[in-house]
Write a structure and sequence with these properties.
By secondary structure, the protein is of the alpha/beta class. The chain folds into 3 domains: 127 residues, Response regulator (Rossmann fold), CATH 3.40.50; 87 residues, Beta-Lactamase, CATH 3.30.450; 71 residues, Arc Repressor Mutant, subunit A. The strands form 2 sheets. The protein has a 5-stranded parallel beta sheet, with helices on both faces. Strands 7-6-10-9-8 form a 5-stranded antiparallel beta sheet, with helices on one face. A hairpin with a 5-residue loop joins strand 6 and strand 7. It is elongated. The termini are far apart. 28% of the residues are buried. The N terminus is likely disordered.
Length: 308
């Protein structure tokens, strides 16, 4: 018998099975192994539980009345509360088509009955470790302020960093923006596959709002595809500088060329100005930016342009 360390946090296992005998056997074995066990006797009960409590892993019987395990898994993966929770199928079905169906539904593993407890414990440890690694990566991305979104092959959202969610909601003008964008991504994914993967970025303008540019970064896991999002920039660089620093039209043009490393004489030739006029504009630019030299002005301008 493996005794649990009562001082350590206990991982929560949601056990879904319509068989009282299986529930009793597995509950006792898992609790002795140090897990906290939640029990659901149907798919509907499992869905209700995850709306209140998020388990660390779900053990799911494939064959149940009314809603079978395959449908239950699909619904769990569509739920924000459980979409990232690993699901391990348990069943007496051993045909390849059943294994494939379980994995297609979102399961990460497939155990055949009768269940070997030692094997079950080992697989639970592996999937918990993998799930925590994935969660740590998402937290790191959140902390880095990255606008990243991962989807299934059909466009359904697997996860989104808070920054990406805020950007999407702002662009769509609704708090349900992820659903709108998911439809557009699904269409692009199908076309992308048909074209043989020749393009890796596209722009959408949901609901006639401001555009979102999505760059496809590639597959990062089984049925997990990563995109980077940026807001479509409809303003020219000099317009961005003009609005940000309250510059005149000519001052913003001069500042843009300063940021590109041009000397006063070059700027005069490009804009059709005398060197003296360029110098006068620079004096006003320094005042408005609160800097003392062209190098500092170039740095501030470049920072603003890169932030867009």
């Amino acid at each position: 018998m493996i005794m649990a360390d009562i001082s350590a946090p206990r991982d929560i296992v949601l056990l879904v099975d319509d068989s009282p005998e299986a529930l009793g056997f597995l509950t006792e074995a898992l609790e002795q192994s140090g897990f906290s066990v939640l029990i659901a006797t149907s798919g509907a009960s499992a869905l209700a539980i995850v709306e209140r409590i998020t388990p660390d892993i779900i053990l799911l019987d494939a064959v149940m009345p009314d809603m079978d395990g395959f449908e239950t898994c699909g619904r769990l993966k569509a739920s924000p509360a459980a979409s990232q929770v690993p699901v391990v199928f348990m069943t007496g079905l051993t045909e390849t088509e059943h294994v494939v169906r379980a994995l297609d539904a979102g399961g990460v593993d497939y155990l055949t009955k009768p269940i070997n407890i030692d094997e079950l414990r080992a697989r639970i440890r592996v999937h918990l470790t993998n799930a925590r690694s994935a969660q740590s990566a998402r937290v790191a991305l959140d902390a880095a302020g990255r606008h990243l979104l991962a989807v299934h092959g059909d466009g359904r959202v697997r996860w989104s960093t808070p920054q990406a969610t805020r950007l999407i909601n702002a662009a769509t003008g609704t708090d349900e923006g992820l659903e709108t964008v998911a439809v557009e991504i699904g269409l692009w994914m199908r076309e992308h596959t048909q074209r043989g993967g020749s393009d890796n970025s596209f722009t959408i303008r949901p609901g006639g709002q401001s555009g979102l540019h999505l760059a496809y970064l590639g597959a990062i896991g089984a049925d997990e595809y990563l995109f980077r999002l940026t807001a479509e920039n409809l303003l020219s660089d000099d317009e961005i500088l003009r609005q940000h620093f309250a510059l005149t039209h000519r001052e913003s043009e001069v500042l843009l060329w300063i940021a590109k490393g041009k000397a006063n004489r070059d700027i005069g030739e490009i804009l059709g100005l005398s060197a003296r006029t360029v110098t006068k504009h620079l004096e006003q630019i320094y005042v408005k930016l609160g800097v003392e030299n062209r190098a500092s002005a170039a740095v501030k301008a470049t920072h603003v342009l890169n932030a867009v």
